[in-house]
Amino acid sequence: MNADEWGPMGKRAVLEVIALDVEDAVAARAGGADRLEVVADMAADGLTPPLTVLTGIRAAVDLPLRVMVRLSEGFAAGAAKDVDRLVRTAGELREAGAEEFVLGFLDAQGSVDLAAVELVVAELDGCPWTFHRALDHAADREAVRKQLDGLPGLDTCLTAGSAAGVDAGLPTLLAEAARRAEPGYEQQLLVGGGLRLDHVPLLRSAGLDAFHIGGAARPHGWTGPVSERSVREWRRTIDDEQPE
C-alpha cells in the first residue's frame, strides 16, 4: 500500500526514512516506507546529496523524495555568497528532477533566517518542503512557526519537540499537535530525532501521523545500510496504533 492509499480508518500515517544511496532506498521501499529523505554525510547531520545519488534513487524507487538543501553542518545559511550557493544548489536539484525538499536556517540569535529561507524557497517554484529540526534549536519555536506561516510549499515541520530528542520533547509535541487548527501550526508534524518504537502509541493517540527515522532503520549504525526488516517493524507498529 502506497502513501496515497486509504485503509478502513482513513489515510495511513506517513513513514519517512533517510536514504543515503540506492541500496537504502530499495530496502526502505520494500519495508513499507512512504517517503524518503535523501541526504549525504550524516556525520554532519545530513547535507545535500550528489546529483548522481538523487537521479539513481529516482530511477530505483517510485517513492516521493524529499531532498536536503544544506551545504554545511549547523543551521546557519552563512554569508551572502553561501546563500547564493544554496540558491544555486536548489536550482540544480530542481533541474535534476527533485520535486520535494528539506531545509531550515537560523541566524546567530536563534531566530529563523527568513531572508535566506525565502530566497531558497523562491527557487523551488512552489514545490512542497519540510522545515527541518532547526526548529528544535530555535530560541523561540513559536515565533519561528509564525514567521514561516504562509511560505509557498511549506507543508511539514520535522521536529523532536526538543534539541535533546523525542524523550525530552514529548510534552511539546503533544501540545503542538493540539494546536493544529491555529495559524502557524497547520503544517504536518513529522516526528523524528531520537524517536523509538515505544514512543509511537502515545504519539498516535494524540493524532500525530508522520514519523521520520534514520538510525532506527539501521541495526548496524550509519556505517550499515537501511534494513528492510527494521522498516517493516516500524510500518507495522505505526499501522497497529491507528487511532480509533
From TrEMBL:
Origin: domain of life:
Bacteria
Show the GO MF annotations.
copper ion binding
The stretch of residues making up the signal peptide is none
Its transmembrane ranges are: none
Q: Which InterPro entries match?
A: CutC-like, CutC-like_dom_sf
Q: Of which family is this protein a member?
A: Belongs to the CutC family.
Q: What is this protein called?
A: Copper homeostasis protein cutC homolog
Annotated source species: Streptomyces humidus
